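User: Thanks for the earlier help. One more: Laccase. Can you show the sequence and predicted structure together?

Assistant: Of course, both are below.
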Amino acid sequence: MRLKMKIFIQQIIVFLFLLGLLPAHAFVHRHRFIIKEAPYSKLCSSKNILTVNGQFPGPVIYANTGDTLVVNVQNDGTQNITIHWHGVKQPRYPWSDGPEFITQCPIRPGTNFSQRINLSDEEGTLWWHAHSDWSRATVNGALIIRPANKTNYPFPRPAAEIPIILGEWWKSDVQAVVNEFLASGGDANKSDAFLINGQPGDLYPCSTNDTFKLTVEKDKTYLLRIVNAVMNNLMFFSVANHQLTVVGTDGAYVKPFKSNYITISPGETIDVLLKANQNPNHYYMGAKAYNSVVGVDFDNTTTTAIIQYRGNYTASSPPILPNLPNFDDTNASFNFTRSLKSLADKTHPINVPLNITTNLLFTFSVNTLPCEDESCGGPNGDRFAASVNNISFILPRIDILEAYYKNIQGVYGDEFPSFPPLNFNFTGGSLPVELQRPDRRTEVHVLEYGTNVEIVLQGTSLLGGVDHPIHLHGYSFYVVGAGFGNFDKDKDPLNYNLVDPPLQNTIAVVRNGWAAIRFKADNPELGVKSMVYALSFRTSRKLGNGNGIHCERWKSSQEKLLPPPPDMPLC
């Protein structure tokens, strides 16, 4: 069996070289992910959680720009699983992208799938995670992509690089949390703690020894690679008495700027330089949730880790706490995000699409669906839902990519609207109740290969509105503009940043506001995503499928998808 696998991998490598998709300097990294339950104790209680190789967070994967990963995923757990490589473009090869029933069927218990992940121009911090239900709460890890051989960071090499994964913990079983809110139609129970590298920190009960500690030497600089693996919350993060120099986001470099804190969306990564330039002592790093919606119950606790200077001194007890923004400080969140700008130098050029050929406007809403006897846990006894352009996405039972590739009829429609079917004051204060009811369908939006696309992502105030984390599969995009209220097609484009907009794959659309993104549709696959399921736009709400999927038509053999691997999971 091992001999067959080795021959198969060698055939893949030769195939890639012949196609010119694997650079001559590229290296192939092989990993084995065993999905299995493992016992963990936190917050005075114990439970089994789903893990990769028994680790939580999962193993950190290291590679260089242009390398290839071959990851054999063996599912020894009790539930279906997929693994998504968040932020990897996977040029012409979306078969290993990971979202269940979108690019693949799930890996069933007792089976395995060998994923091939082709890195292209990504450089910086990305991550991988499960992409089925809420399994990603514990099945996740960092993907660190360093510069290719004979190239360097655009900043002095740090003394060390440290992954910082922000996570979340429920005392109860995560799947039980999912089952409960799916059954009730209400919101999910809030978590019991946030985590830094799998540890809650000593501000929580029974957690004195469950605190991540980072030892530093005075006057040395450290690269913190921060991943927000929290399920749905934007997070504030800071280090007491230390300024952070932001140098990257989502696998791309930004113009360095200093800040006392960062705001990081679910699924986003931020790279910061930390200079250990304070008096030797112990200092907390801390993170807490940002929440802009009044009256919504959320986890308002703070997770901490400790920066400890090397040397002989008497440390403060307790360590010095950071000054984090207030949990509802919208300006702090928005202003940090708008400070991100692409590095855009000769070594790291950008290519912002200027001549837009496809304009789209997608609205994101929290909705409700009727419930029998008005007995559900949502507003007015209804069931929570979410939508994009008033469509709440229904997952098919055959993956859409396979249906598209094999021309299987009846799996999905291709009538996802380019603009909202209902035109109303999207962020108005009093909206008709009938606007809360979405259509439930499985629809995709088809893009012509090679088109320059602009999508305006518009939040709505239905049910009060929320901040909407957005992720795009198969692409990074330029965030050319953002603002509050309704997008004005005549005025707002005049203020677009077309010189050095940040290149990202995940952003959060501010509550009752908008963001405009641009990209070139040059990677044939199913593309756009929201934050709960599928290959589409996810809403930040914990319930429902607010998804808008796109796929591309291609014209020549050079633009076509590469064929699927022989061990694709079966539905």
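User: Great, one quick takeaway?

Assistant: The helical segments are 2-19, 174-184, 330-338, 400-406.
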